[in-house]
């Protein structure tokens, strides 16, 4: 395992695992069970070399090293069919297509996540507090959640398209 993988695992353990303060308690409800799912996941033992072999270079940078793809570059921005968006790292279903909306940011955005599919943590990388979210099963980084989304949740899960795959219904 790599150092960044260990760091992510440590950050998602215990009190740092849920940062409900950023989302008024909503992240906690959506993340319940995510820590246990990761603890029992076979993806805990996947090495950086194995991730590199199964992901494109950009997907590897985003999912395993918390990179960000350029806005407006994902073909998933224009995906409007019925179906489910999955984690590209481990194929865990994360978002239903009916929860997708055009946020104007250049990244696929959703106002709801499938229960138990993500874990969150505080991120201060740009000098302000944000809520970062990761796949609950493989800990792949997907993006950040903000409180400027549409009804009914008011949330915007701003996702790197390269971290997702889409399966039409």
Task: Write the topology of this structure.
Blueprint: H1 3-11, H2 26-31, H3 34-39, H4 48-54, H5 57-65, E1 83-87, E2 93-96, E3 100-101, E4 109-110, E5 118-123, E6 130-135, E7 141-146, E8 156-159, E9 164-168
The residue fraction in helices comes out at: 10-25%
Q: With helices defined by DSSP (H or I, 4 residues minimum), what is the helix count?
A: 5
| Cα-atom radius of gyration | 15 Å
How many separate structural domains?
1
- List low-confidence stretches: 1-32
The CATH H-level superfamily is: Peptide methionine sulfoxide reductase
Distance between the termini: 35 Å
CATH C-level label: Mainly Beta
Query: How many individual β-strands?
Result: 9
- CATH architecture type: Beta Complex
What value does the average pLDDT take? 82
**Beta-strand content bin:** 15-25%
Judged by helices, strands and strand pairing, the structural class is: alpha+beta
CATH topology (level 3) name: Metal Binding Protein, Guanine Nucleotide Exchange Factor, Chain A
Order the strands across the largest sheet as they lie in space.
3-4-8-7-6-5
**Cα shape:** globular
| H-E string | HHHHHEEEEEEEEE
Task: Describe the largest sheet.
Answer: 6 strands, antiparallel
């Amino acid at each position: 395992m790599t150092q960044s993988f260990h760091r992510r695992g440590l950050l998602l353990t215990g009190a740092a695992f849920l940062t409900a303060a950023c989302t008024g308690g909503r992240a906690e409800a959506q993340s319940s069970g995510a820590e246990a799912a990761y603890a029992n996941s076979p993806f805990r033992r996947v090495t950086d070399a194995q991730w590199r072999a199964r992901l494109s270079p950009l997907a590897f940078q985003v999912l395993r090293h918390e990179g960000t793809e350029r806005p407006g570059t994902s073909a998933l921005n224009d995906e409007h069919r019925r179906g489910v968006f999955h984690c590209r790292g481990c194929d865990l279903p994360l978002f239903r297509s009916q929860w997708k909306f055009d946020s104007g940011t250049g990244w696929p955005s959703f106002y709801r996540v499938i229960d138990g599919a993500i874990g969150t943590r505080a991120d201060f990388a740009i000098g302000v507090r944000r809520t970062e979210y990761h796949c609950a099963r493989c800990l792949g980084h997907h993006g950040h959640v903000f409180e400027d989304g549409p009804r009914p949740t008011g949330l915007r899960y701003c996702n790197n398209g390269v971290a997702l795959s889409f399966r039409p219904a």
